[in-house]
Every structure is written in structure tokens, then in C-alpha cells.
Amino acid sequence: LTVALGQIGNFLAYTAVPTVLVTPLGALGVPFGSILASYLLKEKLNILGKLGCLLSCAGSVVLIIHSPKSESVTTQAELEEKLTNPVFVGYLCVVLLMLLLLIFWIAPAHGPTNIMVYISICSLLGSFTVPSTKGIGLAAQDIFHNNPSSQRALYLCLVLLAVLGCSIIIQFRYINKALECFDSSVFGAIYYVVFTTLVLLASAILFREWSNVGVVDFLGMACGFTTVSIGIVLIQVFKEFNFNIGDLNKPNMKTD
């Protein structure tokens, strides 16, 4: 139930604010989940994990401060114009070509031994899932209106739903394959960074959300995203380390 509510909230967020803000902030579930698990499930959260939680929250604040303050695409007509833009169509063709190479040639041979193969497949599919989610929200606004564009909005929404469903199914398949072969903590940390980077790239090409962002805000968002990524790595990758702040007070015993 809570996962379903979270996904509904995520969907509403994509329809209300720029993608460049929503996607990186999705990482806040990791520090909050780690903190709750340490209290409710008595899981151990070492000093590096606590530092990672702090960095994730601090980076998120920086992202919020420097993110675009308004949407670049707010209507179905603008969305259709962006979807048919030659630059975005060319980008999708490149992504599809890379996915075909990874899924049918590279993954069968190198997937079980190279973690970046499965991560690349799942992350490239983010180029379809997140823009589709945002597009569905925009198209749905016109479906129930009694005007000539409502029929086109329905068709567009159905197409985007099909793309979204196929992308999610393929992502789940390769995420499960990755978790069978690699450590979930390492996979989760690398996957967040690569997935978010490619989603932001796809959203920047489609929605042009960076067009009104100044140099200072761009650098601020880059620093915020880097800080959040470092925090996620500290929480995920080093969570098994038996190290806490009490170890700093122990005397250094030297032996001959």
C-alpha cells in the first residue's frame, strides 16, 4: 500500500514540477529508509551511513534551491511539438540502437560478469519511463475536455502508457538479473547515479528544462547532485563496515 501511494505521489510530482528536480530527489528514500530501519528494524547504521544521510539531505536542499522554478512544457500541444523534435527523435534512435546491442549481443556474453551492462540497460530505459510518465500527466489533462484535441490526447496517452509499461517490465527483468549476480548495495549506488544522469539528459533534450537555468544555478544543481550521489554511495556501499564513532576514541595499540 505504501509503495503504491509513493508511486502515485511520484507520478503527481512529475506532472507538477520539472523532471530535473523530481528524479534526483527520489534518492531521499534511501537515507530515510536507512534511518527508519535503524530504529524500527534495529539494523546497524555506521558513521559512514550517517554521514551519507546528512550529505543526501544537504545535497537535496541545494538541488531545490537551484532547480528551475517553472515548467517549460505545460500543454499537450507543446508536448507533441517536443516529441517530434528532430533532436529528440535522433536521441531516441541512438538509445534504441544501444539497447538492442546491449540486450541481444552484449548482455548474454558479458552481463553476468560486468555490472555496467545491466545498469546501462536499465538506465537507458529511463529515457522512456520518466518522460513517458510526465507526458501521460500532461496528456491526461485534456482527455476529459470536450474539445477536438481530447481524442488526440487519448491516443497520445495510450501510446505513452504502452511505452511506459514495456520499459518498466524490461527494467524489472534486468534489475532482477543484476541482483542475482552482483551485490545489491553496489548495484543500487551505481544504478542511481547512471539512471539519474541519463534521465536528466533525456528530459533536458525533450523538455528543455535547462534553457532558463543560469550558470550559477547549473553549477549549484551539479554540486547538489554530486553531493547526493556521494551520500548514496556511503550509505549503500559501506553499510557492512563495522566502524562507528566510538572506534575513534580507542588507543592505537602497536605491537613489535
Description:
The chain has 256 residues and is an all-alpha fold. It has two domains: 1-69 and 213-240, no CATH class; 70-207, no CATH class. Helices cover 77% and strands 0% of the residues. Helix 4 (47-66) packs antiparallel against helix 10 and helix 9 (184-207) runs antiparallel to helix 10. The longest helix has 33 residues, at 149-181. The mean pLDDT is 79. Keywords: Membrane, Transmembrane, Transmembrane helix. The chain crosses the membrane at residues 20-41, 48-68, 88-108, 153-174, 186-206, 218-238.
Morphology call: globular
Unreliable parts: none
Q: Structurally, how many domains make up the residues?
A: 2
| N- and C-termini, Cα separation | 60 Å
Portion in strands: under 5%
Structural class: mainly alpha
Tally the helices: what do you get? 10
Note the run of SSEs as H and E: HHHHHHHHHH
Mean pLDDT: 79
Largest sheet: none
Assembly level: single chain
Number of strands: 0
Q: Give helix % range.
A: over 70%
Computed over alpha carbons, the radius of gyration is 21 Å
Give the secondary structure arrangement, pairings included.
Elements: H1 2-16, H2 19-25, H3 29-40, H4 47-66, H5 76-83, H6 86-110, H7 115-143, H8 149-181, H9 184-207, H10 215-237
Helix pairs in contact: 1-7, 2-9, 3-4, 4-10, 6-7, 7-8, 7-9, 9-10
Relevant terms:
256 residues, mainly alpha, 2 domains, 10 helices
Quick rundown:
Keywords: Membrane, Transmembrane, Transmembrane helix. It comes from Origma solitaria. This protein has 256 residues and is mainly alpha-helical.
